[in-house]
Amino acid sequence: LSKNVWLVNVGTQKDTSRRAVEIANEYAEGVYAAVGLHPVHTEKSFHDLKELGADNITREFTSRGENFDIDYYKSLAANKKVVAIGECGLDYYRLGDSTKNRQSEAFTAQIALAREAGKPLMIHCRSGVAERVSPHNGAGRDAFSDLIGILKSEKLPERPGIIHFFSGTKGDARELLDMGFCFTFGGVITFAHDYDEVIEMIPMDRILSETDAPYVTPVPYRGKRNEPAYVVEVVKKLSEIKKRTLLEMADIIFENAKRVFLF
Fold first, then answer.
1. Which of 3, 27, 51, 55 is 20 to 30 A from 19, alpha carbon to alpha carbon?
2. What does the mean pLDDT of the chain come to?
3. What's the mean pLDDT in 172-201?
4. pLDDT above 90 covers what percent of the chain?
5. What are φ and ψ of residue 56, in 5° steps?
6. Could you count the other beta carbons within 10 Å of the beta carbon of residue 30?
7. Other CB atoms within 10 A of residue 22 CB
8. Where are the beta strands (DSSP E) in the chain?
9. What is the strand order of the sheet 207-209 is part of?
10. Helix, strand, or coil here: 44?
C-alpha cells in the first residue's frame, strides 16, 4: 500500500482462503480477498511450499485432497472484504484424467456459489505437460476447451469475473470475451512475447494486471521472490503493448478492477 498498489489476496483452499480474509480485514481499504478451492487441491498432490510464504517455509505443506465445502466457503464469502470466488477452475498440468471429474465438480459448485453470493469468479486454467506450448498453435486445448464447455453450460454470475494469468489462444479469448470475462496478465509478459497478440486483441476495458506472487517474477526482478509491488513492471509492459502511457494504463486497470470487484 505504501507504493499505492492495491491487491486481492487469493485463497486456494480452506486455510489460505481464511487467512486471506483475515489479512484483508486488517486494512480499511486496498487489500481484499478471494476465497475458493484451487483445482490442484481437489486431490492430494505435490505443491510448492512457497504458497504459504516465507514465514511458513519450514511447515509441511501438501495438497490434502479437499472436498469443496460450500457452507464453509459461503460463510467466508459473506465477508464484505471478499470480492471474488476462487481461485477455481481446471489444472491438467500434473494431474491425470482420473482427477478431471473432481476438478469439474468443484468448479461447477464454485460457479453456483459465485452466482448465489453475487460475486465474480477468479478462474485458473492450465493445460497438461504435453500441451504446454505457445498459445498461437492451438495446442493445449484440453483444459481450455473443457473450461469453456463448463462455463457455457452453467448460469454465470452477473459479473462473470476474471481469467487469471490467461494462457489460452486468441480463439479461447474471443469465446471468453463473449461470455463477459476479463483477463489478467502477469510477469511472464515482461520476458516473453507469446501473449502480445492476445493482449493487443483484448479490449482495454477487459484487461487487468497481476503478479501471481510469489511466482513468475517480472523483469528486472527475475530470480527474486515475486511481490505485489512488482506489478508496476507488468503495467509498464501492458502500456507498451497497448500503446498507452503508464499513467493511462494504470488508471484504466484500476477502473476495470473497481468495476469487476466493486471496491
1. 3
2. 89
3. 97
4. 80
5. -115, 15
6. 12
7. 13
8. 7-10, 31-35, 44-45, 63-64, 82-91, 121-126, 161-163, 182-185, 207-209
9. 7-10, 31-35, 82-91, 121-126, 161-163, 182-185, 207-209
10. strand
